[in-house]
């Protein structure tokens, strides 16, 4: 680009997504061609029957995880998901602090801002780890319940702060500036 001002018009920023603030160097965002090619290759390799088998296994695993989350005191699955992607929130506990605790057990969960929750995309890789995940989730809930101050640490503190920013226009400007600095030559 001739200058930074022109380049900023390429960037895509959306701060009202329930998942949080989103900034991308282009409108397609995280849908790069490599992901599409990998999906096509996977479908070609598995075939229709293999794809259906994986879909059934993954849906069954997602249901087991959702049931397990709902069985943990203080947690609830948000909505009634019909797919292998779901979010869960916490009543009387900081969901983001639970996410931080899960990371200490080796699990990575995406944070969602509205409502404050944790997000999980279930894949066939989750099939053998359902029990371990739910055990670690119970331990994480117990840890946060025993230590409410954990809301002021780690990613929990950052996500809590972002949810309280009064002027979203300032957030848009900040994300644009970040992308501009990231991609300057």
CATH architecture: Alpha-Beta Complex
The whole-angstrom Rg is 19 Å
Low-confidence stretches: none
Write down the CATH topology. Answer: Aspartate Aminotransferase, domain 1
Oligomer: single chain
In which range does the helix fraction lie?
Answer: 40-55%
Mean pLDDT: 85
Please outline the major beta sheet.
4 strands, antiparallel
Shape: flat
β-sheet strand percentage: 5-15%
Question: Helix count, per DSSP?
Answer: 6
Order of strands across the biggest sheet?
A: 3-4-6-5
What is the fourth-level CATH superfamily?
Aspartate Aminotransferase, domain 1
Can you tell me the CATH class?
A: Alpha Beta
- Structural class determined from secondary elements: alpha+beta
Q: Report the count of strand segments.
A: 6
Architecture blueprint of SSEs:
Elements: H1 4-8, E1 12-14, E2 22-24, H2 33-70, E3 75-77, E4 85-90, H3 95-104, E5 110-112, E6 117-121, H4 130-146, H5 154-163, H6 168-183
Antiparallel strand pairs: 1-2, 3-4, 4-6, 5-6
Helix pairs in contact: 2-4, 3-4, 3-5
Overview of this structure, please?
The protein has a single domain, classed as Aspartate Aminotransferase, domain 1. With 185 residues, it is an alpha+beta fold. The strands form 2 sheets. It has a 4-stranded antiparallel beta sheet. Strands 1-2 form a two-stranded antiparallel sheet. A hairpin with a 7-residue loop joins strand 3 and strand 4. It has helices spanning 4-8, 33-70, 95-104, 130-146, 154-163, 168-183, and strands at residues 12-14, 22-24, 75-77, 85-90, 110-112, 117-121. It starts with a helix and ends with a helix. It is flat. 52% of the residues lie in helices and 12% in strands.
